[in-house]
Design brief:
single chain, 14-stranded antiparallel beta barrel, Porin, mainly beta, 328 residues
Length: 328
């Protein structure tokens, strides 16, 4: 490994440790609905398990991986839904990691024959860790070492609590909502500084421009337009895309960026293909980088898996109203 590469890795680690953190984002944001918004907790007639994995910038030294696991179920007799969500994000050669484990709850208000409002909350535990033994210090890469020798200062891994809230409004073909996360601004400094995770706001929504099916409850062809805009600290991101479902296949393409606002053409163009059955959804997507990192990042790979299974408590009970958004 060249000295320049080692310097860049070290610079990234310093920025990661001392800068205010930003959350990882999933390209298949509707394949990880509880991560997008706690309002989706229990928005299913089945019990639902979701697994998500994202490999960001595979061509850059060090790892940039995000893992997510969620489980949710409906409580139709109380117009409610509950869920759990666990995420683990690791970045850089020093395994700078962030772990979140949350309990989610949502409630469905029917305000007319077709329209519903679904608020939600997420109470979670936050943990920030770093493995200093995996970092490379100047004394390890310079001839004869460094005088005086550089030793890592003492630090403690960070544990804190956090809270998110959301609201979703939807009809049989339209949905829109928002999520406000990190309302308790958890600590993100290993040395007791005032650095915290900044509040994040997600605005999302879309509509079905085509929906056909053999039965009212069984759609076999759907085309949807969807968008997700995120603000966190000084950073912002916008995803706009199109989904097409022809049973059992799903295709998606969307654009990440804000034209005419930034100097670059955008961040990425994302392509996705998936398969959707009554119980199992599998999606694979790839981010084609179009920013200044086009020759060095390697894009991003993402895989999602959602498994649904019937609950005996739902059979014969009050019907759960379906939200028309895509599942990838």
């Amino acid at each position: 490994m060249s000295a320049k590469t080692k310097y860049l890795i070290g610079l990234f680690i310093l920025v990661s440790v001392f800068a205010r953190g930003q959350d990882p984002q999933f390209s298949q944001f509707y394949a990880n609905q509880l991560y997008l918004s706690p309002s989706f907790a229990g928005a299913t007639e089945d019990n639902r398990v979701a697994l998500n994995w994202r490999n960001q910038w595979p061509s850059i030294p060090g790892v940039f991986h995000t893992y997510s696991f969620s489980f949710d179920k409906a409580i139709p007799n109380f117009n409610s839904g509950i869920g759990i969500l666990a995420t683990y994000d690791v970045a850089g050669s020093g395994d700078l990691s962030t772990t979140n484990i949350g309990l989610l709850y949502s409630y469905d208000f029917q305000i007319s024959d077709e329209w519903h409002i679904r608020p939600g909350v997420n109470f979670k535990f936050y943990y920030l860790g770093l493995d200093l033994t995996k970092l490379v210090w100047n004394s390890q890469i310079t001839t004869g070492g460094t005088l005086p020798p550089i030793t890592p200062p003492p630090f403690d891994n960070v544990a804190d609590i956090d809270f998110a809230t959301s609201a979703l409004i939807y009809s049989p073909r339209i949905w829109a909502g928002f999520t406000v996360d990190h309302l308790l601004t958890p600590k993100t400094s290993f040395w007791g500084d005032d650095a915290t995770v900044p509040v994040k706001v997600d605005l999302y929504g879309g509509f079905q421009i085509l929906s056909r099916g053999r039965l009212k409850t069984k759609l076999t062809q759907v085309m949807s337009v969807a968008a997700n805009v995120m603000f966190q600290g000084k950073f912002y991101q916008s995803d706009v895309g199109l989904y097409y479902f022809q049973e059992p296949l799903v295709f998606g393409v969307w654009y990440r960026g804000i034209p005419f606002v930034t100097s670059q053409a955008g961040d990425a163009v994302i392509g996705m293909v998936g398969i959707k059955t009554d119980q199992l959804n599998i999606g694979v997507s790839y981010d084609f980088t179009i920013s200044n990192l086009i020759t060095s990042s390697g894009g991003a790979i993402e895989i999602s898996l959602i498994y649904s299974f019937l609950s005996s408590q739902i059979k014969g009970s009050r019907k759960v109203h379906a939200i028309p958004c895509p599942e990838f």
